[in-house]
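Supplementary Text 2. Reproducibility record for the structural model of the 475-residue chain.

All settings were left at their defaults, and a single model was retained for analysis rather than an ensemble. We include the record here because the model underlies the residue-level annotations in Supplementary Table 4.
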Amino acid sequence: MKTGEKKAERQVKRPNVWQSLLVLVCVIAVVAAAIRTGIGIQIGLALGGCVAMAAALLFGNKWETIQDNIKRVVGNSATTLLILLSVGMMVGIWIVGGTVPTLLYYGLKICAPSIIVPLTFVLCAITSTFTGSSYGSIATTGLALFGVGIGMGLSAPLMAGAVCSGAFFGDKMSPLSDTTNVAADMSGTPLYTHIGSMMYTTAPAAVICIIIYAILGASNAAQSADLSNVELMIDTLGANFNISVLALLPALLVLVVSALQVPAVPAMLGCTVVSGVFAMILQKASLSSVLTAAMNGFASDTGVEMVDKILSRGGMSSMYGTVAIIILSATMGAALETSGIINTLMEDVLLKTVKTARGLILSTMAYCYTLLFVSGHQVMPIIMGGRTFRPAYDKMGLQSRVLSRTLEDTCTIGAPMVPWGASCAYMMSVLGIGIEYIPYAFLSYIVPIIAIIYACTGLFIWRTEPKAQAAASDE
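Retained model, structure tokens:
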């Protein structure tokens, strides 16, 4: 048996650089072609996964090895999948229970068109920071404010971009966020040291975002705001739902359980159950209608198209496409990891050509973006980037918080920019919008630009002491 095992191990070939590049280009081309031809993101990822698995087999990997790695990577996504399904149920119940309509009602009454866009960014950032979840922020505060903005006649892509930027601000900065904890762990950085290092790129980016959204929001409101629709929407919501401050308690509960650091899955499921009880009490909804909304979403039939379009959404079934994207992207990423092409490109191209701290940081960003756009999910690039680059940062005398920050400046904040990625699919499914929001997700662009400026100038690039500092000189 031992001889046979050694023989099988010897048959595994390490791909060279050109083979690795060819496979990677083929995988990306297959996924991109499926999207451009309208076949669908899921089919593209499935085909890309098949190409990656075929490559792994051609390089001598046993199917059992590929399969075990897929099981491991997909298994790591189980918590995310459960949260997604819980959020889908909760959104449907929040609509039938009056939580979302109440948020819309008061939002339309209070918010002025000129400030709704920057306000959306700020409130979504606060929600996601408290909850540690971009998805939760998008489906609650984001959905409500998006509806308010649309009701005022503002641009849907602009509103969605503000929601996206705010939601992923907290996903990046919150100590409750999975990506924040994974990046700190993979780089060997204490959690709050990691969060502190991210302030140097994220805080100025957030200020710039607020300014841009304020300017664009005021301009867009002046050009297209249709306040005649606001009163119609307010009257329609008041006529079809029991508008009450009590209906906001399920949303407040999400913030409370997050602040208490209740584990995400039981917290979301518990909030979903409580939301259902509130729906039956406040809106006199039957158990059957609550369960239907949880499964298939809420079908609004008020007779006012604007209101029906905003409120007809939610349900566990609305998340099936996103769940499929996560599973398929994880499968494709696991197959690529098993094939060895990522390690080849890392070890034979990047690390051999990098001689300076600046080059190492920029190489980390390039590596993470490549994995992000291949896999469509931010966790795998964070894990692989941390594992791959950690020894290089130690050797060059750079503190681990520089690596941890770089991982999140690219992977976490860049996730919603990947059209076939899970975050983009989630945005589209919850808000009912296409990829046209991506150019307006300004935080995803500004943060990495600031990171590049720091890398090139040496600002806030901390080094270890003392002798490693000299070894890390850029000269």
